[in-house]
Amino acid sequence: MDRRNFAFDRMNFILLAAGMVVVIIGFILMSGGGTEDGSFNPEIFNATRIKVAPAVCFIGFVSMIYAIIRKPKDAVEPGDAANDNTTNDN
Q: Which pTM does this prediction carry?
């Protein structure tokens, strides 16, 4: 199969993987330990869980959207006459 027919190139997959890692880090930051004895734990309202982690997840999702929308650059093959600008039309 010809490489020009693929929708994504290697860079798209790298960006998708990086975005997924950032989203996973955001979810890890959002999670945390629960209460052991059933009492209220004010730690659930700290800044990491309610401000930083959602921002990290948002950045990860935006980077994944960019990776999907990004158009791969077309590689010009040396012997391809259709992409060659040196042909004469005399």
A: 0.71
